[in-house]
Amino acid sequence: MWGPEGLDEVEAELLGPPEELKGRDVLEIGAGAAQCSRWLAAQGARPVALDISHRQLQHALRIGGTFPLVCADAGALPFADGSFDLACSAYGALPFVADPRQVLREVHRVLRPGGRLVFSVTHPIRWAFPDEPGPEGLSVSGSYFDRTPYVEQDEEGRAVYVEHHRTLGDRVRDVVASGFRLVDLVEPEWPAWNTSEWGGWSPLRGNLIPGTAIFVCVRD
């Protein structure tokens, strides 16, 4: 699943036809509990799930799977050049780093020529709106061009959660400057079957403004 809208890789085939995933080496970046890697393994691929959070990977281990789990920084991937055929990230790593180009350059390095990277992030336009599911979430409350990170702190003032805003143009430039060719930018529409509402996600908002941006990139 690429995002809260419910766009499924079986339907989207952004990594390629499922039948062609068999035997491919795939790196999942910011894997969390490794849901994507688990699906990839079921298609016959050889995934590696990477996340900086040891706790998330412990959760992945409890759920189970036969693929490797790697605790590492996405900006310093512990793999040799040209180790993977594909890389993917569903809302992982890239929104949470101050220098996304470092991550993208590392992914470019570990992909084989012709390799593909597909990653999804919150659609940049959402940063201009309140994170509310109802009508109050439909009015612009800030500048789309304000790149100040969103930061949550504990009682001692230490950052416990940080998310960085990049405009759509920023994201495209990051991809190209890191050596990739952008072949598609997917903005999933909210489907009629999805009646879920949680956080700032809802059919009301989803039918009016995009929520997810998916970048499909190729290492030529």
From TrEMBL:
Coiled coil: none annotated. GO terms for biological process: methylation. Residues 27-119 form the Methyltransferase type domain. One of its GO terms (molecular function) is methyltransferase activity. The keyword S-adenosyl-L-methionine does not apply. It comes from the Bacteria. The keyword Protease does not apply. Keywords: Methyltransferase, Transferase. This is SAM-dependent methyltransferase. It comes from Streptomyces lomondensis. The lineage of its organism: Bacteria, Bacillati, Actinomycetota, Actinomycetes, Kitasatosporales.
